[in-house]
Amino acid sequence: MKEKPSVNLNEDVLLYSKECITEYEVVKAQREWADGIVRIGKVYTDGGDYKTEAAEFIQEMYGYDLGSVLFKPTLASVSQFRNSFDSAKSYFVGDNPAYPEDSGFAIKPYTNVKWENVGIINNNCRMAIAMGNYYFTPKDGNGDVKVEYTFAYVKDKSGKIRIASHQSSLPYVPPKE
């Protein structure tokens, strides 16, 4: 009988944590995401380097360096799927000729983002999924913009929650009769 080769499980090469994701961690990541969107807009309004701010935000919050990220942002219709870092950055700050429809979602700017989770599923331990509505308060304060979302989260090997899937859309508006 042949002996099976041993497998060296060097944890340094793992991209993801072995630890489960908690509901608290998801809610904390949502707050960090919201704060990041507001921060990008403030840096833009203050005349700062909002593109670098957005790049750091994406690197911190999304798992593009871990593998595939499925990103379907709200205000995109021509190139509606953003599966690369550069396409995500274009959505948030615009100014990318490859994505002419992008005007810079995060530089509107917004003063607040409020999350309203319908539910968070984390029963498979390695990924958590949250779904609900989030509300963006524009700088002029003229009413919140309601957006529907589904986010999937993973935990990287350092224990940081990262977005692996992000889908958002404006609510359906039935035709007027």
Automatic annotation (TrEMBL):
- The protein's name: Phosphoribosyl-AMP cyclohydrolase
What InterPro entries would the database entry show?
A: MICAH-like, NTF2-like_dom_sf
The top of its lineage is: Bacteria, Pseudomonadati, Bacteroidota, Flavobacteriia, Flavobacteriales
Protein source organism: Psychroflexus longus
Gene3D superfamilies to which the protein is assigned, alphabetical: 3.10.450.50
